[in-house]
Amino acid sequence: MKKLIVLLTVLFLANACKKENETNDAFKAEAQTFLDEYTKTYTKLYNDASLAEWDANTKIVAGDTMNAYNVQKAGEAYAKFTGSTEVIDKTRQFLEGKDKLDTVQVRQLNTILYAAANNPEIASDLVKERIAAENAQNEALFGYDFQVAGKSVTTGDIDKVLRESNNEAERLANWEASKGVGKNLKDGLENLRKLRNETVGALGYDDYFSYQVSSYGMTRQEMLDEMNKMVKEVWPLYRELHTWARYELAKKYNAKVPDYLPAHWLPNRWGQDWSALVNVEGLDIDAALKDKDPEWIVKEGENFYKSIGFDALPVSFYEKSSMYPLPADADYKKNNHASAWHMDLENDLRCLMSVEPTADYYETIHHELGHIYYYQAYTNPNVPPLLREGANRGYHEAIGSLLGFAAMQKPFLAGKGLVDADAKIDETQNLLKEALSNIVFLPFSAGVMTEFENALYAENLPKEQYNKKWWELAKKYQGMVPPSKRGEEFCDAASKTHINNDAAQYYDYAVSYILLFQFHDHIAKNILKQDPHATNYFGSKDVGTFIRGILETGANNDWRELLKESVGSEMSAKPMLEYFEPLMKYLKEQNKDKKYTLPKTL
């Protein structure tokens, strides 16, 4: 009798388990059907919106409203679908039973819900208004006529003056001209802040900054703490660089050494990159490139990726991209900010640039093609279209920056014939130049930009304090001040493209610089067996295999686990600090007996 009871119990449990499995399989199949149908519509609308945005960025005609109309319509259709109440309800329903689904399905559902929060149907009027406001802000930003002494100039012209001119008056005129665009963007920025906050608030987010941070699986405070940690870690070296720069620039302009750096003295509109302050003899890349055709520079970038095992770019890339400056007599403008585009989440890959034969563009082409090859790598059957993006947003920038960084090291350049392999270069000066780019960037990205946008969105910074806050942060984190008083008639923060159209995400770049040095350190020491200061990735299929391993899973992973698997550690500034450690001794010697004006710690 006991044996019979046991047998019946086993049969009952087996039957119950079978029924549960059948129920789970049915639920999983239902979720997959939803994902397939959503993806089909999503990819079409994504492509439509991308095409409209492309046209709006590549042909800006004063008074022409057609591009704005097309962007508005495509954006509204995309928003209506991704934010529909039906989509949100179904997604939440499936996520309630996520234990019955596989990991890839859950990742896609979370991606759908994240996208919905930016366009919820329950706030459809707000979404429509926000899309129109964003389009208007872009038109005002990219259609602005920069003028110096009554003559129209490009941002490239301004940048050239700030990089090269020794005439302080000329520098001041160009710096002030570069900020003029902000005046016309201040009201729009205030309106966008309101609309962005209220839109994501409809699905429960505290503010737009918190919403954007959530894609990392972090809270707003966790991201702020992480950024603050980054700045504190590099601060001792930044403080040395700041002291060195104050004395060097005062000497250059025959002026009294200032306590804080006048913004127009620096070779970048926002003081985020000071590398142009140093010329490394034997490493004059601008001179080597001056007679090159811009197309040659683009092809060189592609050849690099092919050499490490990646495929050639599709013919359509060259046919559809907008790579070069417009003719001087063009009757329209275009966005000159370099960017990479994955138009359809498949094989329509494009770059928007204005390539010229300079060292900056040589590095930039390697950076932007890093994005393109990231797109190409994760466009594969193992990564559903909804997960065809970086492991996190910082990963995308890290890969671009990594390859741009590698392409500027002497052994690489010598291998390409752009510098003399036997040329003796001052390694300390070269390291200084790299620090003036990489270290200097972190207080700006992790400090100024991150704190400003946190204040803007999460702390509801009043419009009457935008400029005051911007310069308070610039002084605190960069030790930089404006050439003269900048009142609230200005909005100098809005002269930065990202403040307007890539909002509340600038910490992505700070993350990317940390990841860059982690990846580079691993490649140099463990793959190439080379000094991290002097590497040549070109032709190394092993390097390509390592990079592809990071790229090809897209967002179909946990970004923290991917980092541990690839480099063996969590996100850390240690490799960056180790890289620049030899520079500290030199700078301390240079700065001996000089006055430090930045505090020892933040």
From TrEMBL:
It comes from the Bacteria. Zn(2+) 1 binds at residues 367, 371, 397. The active site is at residues 368, 498. GO terms for molecular function: metallopeptidase activity; peptidyl-dipeptidase activity. The keyword Disulfide bond applies. GO terms for cellular component: membrane. InterPro entries: Peptidase_M2. GO terms for biological process: proteolysis. Pfam families: Peptidase_M2. Zn(2+) 2 binds at residues 367, 371, 397. Keywords: Disulfide bond, Glycoprotein, Metal-binding, Signal, Zinc. SUPFAM superfamilies: Metalloproteases ('zincins'), catalytic domain. This is Peptidyl-dipeptidase A. Chloride binds at residue 216. PROSITE patterns: PEPTIDASE_M2 (PS52011).
